[in-house]
Amino acid sequence: MINKKVNSVQEALQGIENGQTIMVGGFGLCGIPENSIAELVKKDVKDLTCISNNAGVDDFGLGLLLQKRQIKKMISSYVGENAEFERQMLSGELEVELTPQGTLAEKCRAAQAGIPAFYTPAGYGTEVAEGKEAREFNGKMHVMEEAYKADFAIVKAWKGDTAGNLIFKGTARNFNSCMAGAAKITIAEVEELVEAGTLDPNQIHIPGIFVKRIFQGEHYEKRIEQRTVRKKQS
Question: Which CATH number is 9-117+147-216's, of 3.40.630.30, 2.40.128.20, 3.40.50.300, 3.40.1080.10?
Answer without folding.
Answer: 3.40.1080.10
